[in-house]
Amino acid sequence: MQRILSFFTRHAATLFFPMALIVYDFAAWLSTDLIQPGIINVVRDFNADVSLAPASVSLYLAGGMALQWLLGPLSDRIGRRPVLLAGALIFTLACAATLFTTSMTQFLAARFVQGTSICFIATVGYVTVQEAFGQTKAIKLMAIITSIVLIAPIVGPLSGAALMHFVHWKALFGIITLMGLFAFIGLLLAMPETVRRSATPFSALSVLRDFRNVFRNPVFLTGAATISLSYIPMMSWVAVSPVILIDAGGMSASQFAWTQVPVFGATIVANTLVARFIKDPASPRFLRRAAPIQIAGLAILIAGNLLWPHLWLWSVLGTSLYAFGIGMIFPVLFRFTLFTNDLPKGTVSAALNIVNLTIMAVSVEIGRWLWFNGGRLPFHLLAVAAGVAALFTLGGLLRRVRQHEARRAAVGE
What we know:
Largest sheet: none
Number of domains: 1
Keywords: Cell membrane, Membrane, Transmembrane, Transmembrane helix
Helix content: over 70%
Transmembrane segments: 12-32, 52-71, 83-102, 108-129, 141-165, 171-190, 219-245, 257-278, 290-308, 314-338, 350-371, 377-398
GO cellular component, one term: plasma membrane
Subcellular location: Cell membrane
Strand content: under 5%
Distance between the termini: 51 Å
Order of helices and strands: HHHHHHHHHHHHHHHH
Protein name: Multidrug efflux MFS transporter MdtM
CATH architecture: Up-down Bundle
Oligomer: single chain
Structural class: mainly alpha
CATH superfamily: MFS general substrate transporter like domains
């Protein structure tokens, strides 16, 4: 018994904490992906308008923005551990509350609260990983976490479609509730504390000052723009594709689920390559080599829909190739944006997520409007515009990172 306890103590931070965080993150993704094939059923059960279906995703993202301003500065002052534990508990209770919803309004309200998990995971959980490990190991560990978590968009729709043949859609949230509870217990037992309690009091003035300093930092601004723009093509597809393929395209829930496999499978493969085979994922040369992959995906996306507008294949193929390119560079973009400054990391992460989720939530609503008012081509033009803009901001980010490193080297000398 003593040996077991000793092993647990030595390896809690390096093994059990990432595992618990993965379960929490996986459950958060699953709360969207498991229900996506059945979101039309949810709308019909509550006798709501089908146009509200994408709101399940956009309100989830809005929930992800709601507490960013608080959690980053709070975790900088009282520590990462109590904040992340509170988040896991809130998420679990919000999923349990979905079992008792009786209207679309209540369902969307529960989705909003579930979305706060994004705040806790990205602002506190990912920062703890970055602080607990060195640069290369943290990047590779984040790639591993992302690879495992992104199984949810593949397994989720397929499992959701299969399970809904036997159980009511509310039972799916019962499964997620149990996963959330398991994650909470795991974090309670294994999560390390990576910051000391700050002597700076938690006040509105100090929080505003921290955020002001972050938003004045040019590396942060460029990195936040790159990450946000990069994820618009994927997030808009996740939110609107059920309407495109099921409601308008006549696909079954199972058929729709299979169309999501190549998109998220490409991201998993990309993250696996970074974690296992790339020796220096932070190299600018490696980041630039991913750009042609993203461009090719965007080209297929728009050319395929121009030449063969009746086939959904080109939408999936182009988005999948683009997702592969983004999956290769995202862990590095996050690391650069977070650590290429001397600012409080919780606040930096919170500010990054505020920008990221705001842009993604707005893009989902724009994408929905473009689909219902213009069709598939205008909807995909949004993804192309965002993807091209992200490539330009990536170049700016690499220049600023290089300048920052040169200044630090000069000071060190």
